[in-house]
Amino acid sequence: MADETETQDEASPQGAPRELSAEERIAQLEAEVAKLKDEHLRALAEAENTRRRGEKQAHEARAYAIDRFARDLLPVADTMARALASVTPEVRASDEAVRNLFEGVELTERALIDAFTRHGLKRVGEKGEKFDPNLHQAAAQIPSEHPAGHVAEIMTPGYLLGDRTIRAALVAVSLGRPASVRTEESPPPGQASGHSPSQSSGPSVDFKV
Fold first, then answer.
1. By mean pLDDT, which of 43-57, 91-105, 111-125 is the weakest?
2. Which residue, among 153, 150, 152, has the nearest Cα to 130 in the 3D structure?
3. What is the mean pLDDT of residues 68-93?
4. 1, 6, 187, 209 - which has most CB atoms within 10 Å?
5. Backbone phi, then psi, for 60, in 5-degree steps?
6. Can you tell me the distance from the alpha carbon of 17 to that of 199, in angstroms, rounded to the nearest whole number?
7. Beta-bridge partners for 123
8. Rounded to the nearest 5 degrees, what angle is found at the Cα of 155, between the Cα atoms of 154 and 159?
């Protein structure tokens, strides 16, 4: 009898894990499957992010590969523009040699700008457009016919390569129309309000720009 009890104790030692029920085993397997599924999804997401980063870097490498080369060519375009601006219409009309030279430089500048455009390099900076600190660099503020806060003069054009500004346009920003012009355009004293000049001291002119 004692021998039989000892045999049962050896078969079921104290502290041995109990056998899980079918429901508990199913729950354990489901938890393991959920964990593996989550790890799988995370791995897929990381792989997709890596792929997108690689594509973006490759796109930027292609788009901005000529960045430094373009910067080196911008002074050439500036020199041509200054040369063309220095020749007045009167001089071109009076001197055939100058006119032919002017036309040659003009064609060369146009070919250069066309080459810029084909490679994604775009000239920016136009009179009258609203000042944009991403595209313009203000060198001065002057009265002009353009509204305040708009570009009054272009000193040096800017350039975009794709969506990246490689050189901002150097501009003068408008302060608005000169005060004398605005005063002349103001109605005579008393006209706007319907009172006679003796009854009104006249409209006030806003000189703030």
1. 43-57
2. 150
3. 90
4. 209
5. -65, -35
6. 108
7. 159
8. 75
Report yes or no: 145 and 177 within 8 Å, Cβ to Cβ: yes
Distance CA 202, CA 109 (A): 54
Strand order of the sheet with strand 158-161? Answer: 121-124, 158-161, 164-167
What is the chain's length? 209
Q: Count other C-beta atoms under 10 Å from residue 142's C-beta.
A: 13
Residues β-bridged to residue 158: 124
Pair type for strands 169-174 and 158-161: unpaired
Q: Which domains does the chain have, with CATH numbers?
A: 122-183 (2.30.22.10)
Q: Bridge partners of 34?
A: none
Query: What pLDDT does 106 receive?
Result: 93
Structure tokens at 116: 């810029």
Q: Is the pLDDT of residue 170 over 90?
A: yes
**What global pTM score does this model have?**
0.56
Q: Which residues of 29-50 are buried (b: 16+ CB within 10 A; e: fewer)?
A: eeeeeeeeeeeeeeeeeeeeee
Neighbours of 135 (CB within 10 A): 19
- Give the 3-state secondary structure percentages of the chain, helix then strand then coil, rounded to 5: 55, 15, 30
What number of other Cβ atoms are within 10 A of residue 198's Cβ?
8
